[in-house]
Specification:
Elements lengths: L1 H24 L2 E7 L9 H15 L8 E7 L4 H12 L4 E5 L6 H12 L3 E3 L13 E3 L3 H15 L6 E6 L4 H16 L6 E4 L6 H9 L4 E4 L3 H13 L6 E4 L6 H6 L6 E6 L9 H13 L5 H19 L6 H10 L25 E8 L2 E4 L5 E2 L5
């Protein structure tokens, strides 16, 4: 009888060990919904996240478990964005979304992520709904804080006498820009600059003529990289001069620098992270990884890398099963984190909306090279 009981104990132990070993090698499933193919595609955030996860997997994963990353395209319609999220959320083993960067995802899927109890730690948030959701956490400061930071820089450090601003009127974004400027005006006690709007792909000559006629000395423009290149090309073809251009983080790229090596224009961009010209070890690590993955040096690739790194830190802090619920809890309970790529501690918490990165560092383009243009980070309160 004693032998039989001991044999059962040994058999049970063998089964338990086998189950634990199977669990230890099971992939940790992570997803993303991004703009990968539309006219305003910016896939490098998710691509940078994948490059970081590949490195983690090559070095043993998370306690032996590889991260299995699936990045889906939000497409060009709400229906395609919804289908992408549906495909990911249908898998109960999906624990978190990381590195997403799109135009439609937040507006279409924010409530679904909340209902599913899953966090989307986004590398490049754009839509207003990204900053108004309990379960979406943008790593970047985004276009609204970015616009407010650029306006603050133009006023306080460039000493603009006639400041103007232009926004690309993408769906749902104009209200976000307007609100950010209004709240900045309330906080600073300085009136907002007039906000002109332009359509993506339209002829921008009329609005540029208007800016020139208005004698604007500094113009803040909210466009992404391709739009910035088109904007500057149009202004140069018109023979415009004497205006200082201040762009948001998407313009702080090697491509913009290469296109304006011999430019006499005063060109600035707001970096959301430690500038990639920095010689700090974290910046060198990111640059080398982007080089190996053949990805551009940009704020978007920094955001994807950083969001993936934040997740890996969190996963390694979890004691016990790694599930959707445990990852969500760990992200929300993690104390403020200093990170060398950020200008302020990163904290998520349990608020009903999140804007944890409200810092920006101005950069100036000099002879085709981006240079730091201010002695310190611009840090804003939550103006959006």
């Amino acid at each position: 009888m004693a032998w039989t009981r001991w044999a059962r104990i040994l058999a049970c132990a063998g089964l338990c060990i086998g189950a634990a070993q199977a669990q230890s090698s099971r992939p940790i499933k992570v997803g993303a919904v991004s703009a990968l193919s539309s006219g305003a595609a910016f896939p490098e955030s998710a691509q940078a996240a994948k490059a970081y996860f590949d490195t983690v997997n090559a070095n043993g994963g998370i306690a032996g478990r590889p991260i299995q990353y699936q990045s889906l395209d939000e497409g060009s319609t709400p229906a395609t964005a919804s289908r992408a999220a549906t495909q990911l959320l249908a898998d109960p083993e999906l624990v978190v979304l990381v590195g997403s960067s799109g135009v439609l995802d937040c507006a279409v899927n924010a409530q679904r992520y909340e209902a599913a109890g899953i966090v989307s730690l986004q590398g490049g948030s754009v839509a207003p709904q990204c900053y108004r959701s309990s379960h979406i956490v943008p790593v970047n400061n985004g276009p609204y804080i970015g616009l407010a930071s650029a306006v603050t820089f133009a006023r306080t450090q460039l000493k603009s006498r006639k400041l103007c601003a232009v926004a690309i009127d993408l769906p749902g974004m104009l209200a976000g820009y307007t609100q950010a400027l209004q709240r900045l005006a309330e906080h600073s006690g300085t009136p907002s600059p007039p906000l002109e709007t332009v359509a993506l792909g339209a002829d921008w000559t009329p609005v540029l003529n208007k800016l020139e006629a208005s004698a604007c000395d500094v113009v803040v423009f909210t466009g992404h990289e391709a739009a910035v290149l088109q904007w500057l090309q149009t202004a140069r073809a018109m023979g415009m001069s004497g205006i200082t251009w201040v762009f948001l983080a998407p313009a702080y790229t090697a491509a913009v620098a290469r296109a304006h090596v011999h430019s006499a224009d005063n060109i600035y961009a707001m970096s959301e992270y430690e500038p990639w010209i920095s010689r700090s070890l974290p910046s060198q690590d990111w640059r080398e990884l982007m080089r190996q993955a053949n990805l551009p040096l940009s704020g978007l690739s920094q955001g994807g890398y950083l969001s993936a790194q934040m997740l890996v830190r969190t996963l390694r802090s979890i004691r016990g099963p790694i599930t959707r619920a445990s990852v969500t809890q760990a992200l929300r309970q993690h104390p403020p984190q200093d990170h060398p790529l950020l200008g302020m501690p990163f904290f998520i918490g349990t608020a009903d909306h999140h804007s944890p990165n409200r810092s920006a560092l101005p950069m100036r383009l000099v002879n085709g090279i981006w240079r730091i243009a201010a002695p310190d980070w611009i840090r804003l309160p939550d103006v959006y």
